[in-house]
């Protein structure tokens, strides 16, 4: 059995503090094989620096995925080339630095394929996410070159996320949605054995507008005139994620939301107690 925790979009200092504090505790408490974090908002809400990325690895994160904010910190265009555990969207244009998929190995030798892919509905027009996922799963079949796989579908539209999950059902262990910064209560196991949730939610301060201090987003909605920068909210974060137990056949056997701290009601898997 493989025990995996996927943590959603870490926003700013408050989100990072929750990851740094909780990941070592949860790794030990639940005897986790893999911890993956979406880090696209980790540096001041916009992108990821190498120092923060390395700090994630130090506290026990195995790999970091990204999204539409992947390269907001320009240094990521350079350091992603030397960091095999940093994964950017696979359907960025050909020639984009870094990789859109990677296999990482657990301490016990289990091999996990991780794919990050961007949706196209209400987002930038990129290459077909379905074709990209088909290509990556085909290149690394479950039970052959990997023991489990997780796809981070970073997308705005619920419909696109559901469609991609059904598309991957039976071929991936887990499909997790990110990007909306709000956890959805629809975690489930699809007919073919693929675990799925529309969105794992953000790891950040929920007394905010999707992780940012409320004042500037409100001004822009009301007046439609930018009058300041977006700054991450600094109150206590809720760590949001999903926990999944994956069987020897690469299928998900149990899935649960995880919510720790901050304003949201707590949640934890009951199958690892
Ligand atoms: Fe995000
Ligand atoms: Fe995003």
Distance between the termini: 15 Å
If helices are DSSP runs of H or I spanning 4 or more residues, what is the number of helices? 6
Helix content: 10-25%
Secondary-structure element order, as H and E?
EHEHEHEEEHEHEEEHEE
State mean pLDDT (0 to 100 scale).
Answer: 98
- Helix/strand-derived class? alpha/beta
| Spatial sequence of strands, sheet with the most strands | 4-3-2-1-11-12
Unique bound compounds: fe (ii) ion
**Spans of at least 5 consecutive residues with low confidence:** none
Rg computed from alpha carbons, rounded to a whole number of angstroms? 17 Å
Reported for the largest beta sheet, the result is: 6 strands, mixed
Assign an overall shape: globular
Question: Care to describe what's here?
Answer:
By secondary structure, the chain is of the alpha/beta class. The protein starts with a strand and ends in a 13-residue tail after the last strand. The longest helix is centred in the N-terminal third of the chain and has 18 residues, at 12-29. It has helices spanning 12-29, 50-58, 76-79, 129-139, 158-168, 215-223; strands spanning 2-7, 34-38, 63-65, 86-87, 101-105, 111-118, 148-154, 174-178, 188-189, 195-197, 239-246, 252-260. The protein has a six-stranded mixed beta sheet with strand order 4-3-2-1-11-12. It has a six-stranded mixed beta sheet with strand order 5-6-7-8-10-9, covered by helices on one side. The model has no long low-confidence stretch (mean pLDDT 98). One fe (ii) ion binds at residues 40, 67-69, 154, 179.
């Amino acid at each position: 059995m493989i025990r995996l925790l996927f943590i959603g979009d870490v926003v700013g200092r408050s989100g990072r503090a929750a990851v740094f504090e909780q990941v070592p505790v949860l790794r030990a408490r639940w005897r986790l094989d893999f911890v993956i974090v979406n880090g696209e908002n980790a540096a001041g809400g916009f992108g990821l620096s190498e120092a923060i990325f390395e700090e994630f690895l130090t506290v026990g994160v195995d790999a970091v995925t990204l999204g539409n904010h992947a390269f907001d910190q320009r240094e990521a265009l350079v350091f992603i080339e030397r960091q095999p555990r940093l994964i950017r969207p696979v359907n960025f244009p050909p020639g984009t630095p870094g990789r859109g998929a990677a296999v990482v190995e657990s301490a016990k030798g289990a091999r996990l394929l991780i794919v990050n892919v961007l949706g196209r509905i209400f987002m930038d027009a990129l290459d077909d996410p379905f074709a990209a996922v088909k290509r990556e799963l085909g290149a690394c079949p479950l039970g052959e070159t990997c023991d489990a796989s997780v796809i981070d579908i970073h997308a705005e539209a619920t419909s696109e996320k559901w469609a991609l999950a059904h598309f991957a059902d039976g071929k991936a262990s887990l499909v997790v949605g990110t990007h909306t910064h709000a956890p959805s209560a629809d975690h489930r196991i699809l007919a073919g054995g693929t675990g799925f949730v529309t969105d794992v939610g953000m790891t950040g301060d929920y007394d905010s507008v999707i992780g940012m201090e409320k004042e500037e987003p409100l001004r822009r909605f009301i007046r439609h005139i930018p009058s300041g920068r977006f700054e991450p909210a600094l109150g206590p974060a809720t760590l949001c994620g999903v926990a999944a137990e994956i069987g020897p056949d690469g299928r998900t056997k149990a899935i649960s939301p995880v919510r720790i701290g901050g304003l949201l009601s707590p949640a934890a898997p009951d199958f690892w107690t």
